[in-house]
Amino acid sequence: MNKMILKFGYIGGIIVSAFMCWVTYLMKQNPEEQPSMLLGFSSMVLAFGTMIYGVNQIRKQNNNQITFGKACKAGFLMSLLISTIYVAVWLVIYYNFFPDFMERYGDIMIKNAKPEEIVKVTEEVKWMKKVYQSPFGVIAMTYVEVLPLGIVISLLNAFIQSKLAKNKK
Fold it and tell me: pLDDT per residue over 140-155, tens digit each?
């Protein structure tokens, strides 16, 4: 089980990090354009798809048997590994190649805000810039981007995998 967790966690981490590198590159090349949230979210779903497949493989290795708890634990650990790789890659990109990210991103957010939302968005940008002043803030904000989705998908997948295991008895 541990090998499967590592294998599919690494694969998912590579997938989501590769997309992040690409989106970051595009953002640096086109500083006036807002990064695609749909592309970012899709890459996360694709990465967590490896977790779904990994838990399915664990169930198959165990004669199509897995409990909700074991499926949830495996899925959560893969999600944590995927998210940690994502965070680590972002830290390298941010501190070495894109230290003005928050300035650029904040400018884009304010520029694209509706007139009635400019004050609210400006306050959000100020808060994000303050959080980004600390490495711990960068780490926390980056985990918040990706890990909650992994947890939700882990729970849903654990429920489905445990139901599939019960139906195979």
Answer: 999 999 999 999 999 9
Give the separation between CA 4 and CA 68, rounded to whole angstroms.
Answer: 17
Distance CA 105, CA 93 (A): 15
Q: What is the pTM of this model?
A: 0.91
* Whether the Cβ atoms of residue 61 and residue 8 lie closer than 8 Å to each other: no
Contact yes or no for 124/102 (Cβ under 8 A): no
pLDDT on residue 165: 79
> How far apart are the C-alpha atoms of 29 and 31, rounded to whole Å?
6
Separation CA 130–CA 133 (nearest Å): 5
Of 10, 97, 120, the closest CA to residue 54 belongs to 10
Q: Report whether 161 contacts 56 (CB < 8 A).
A: yes
Domain locations along the chain:
2-98+146-167
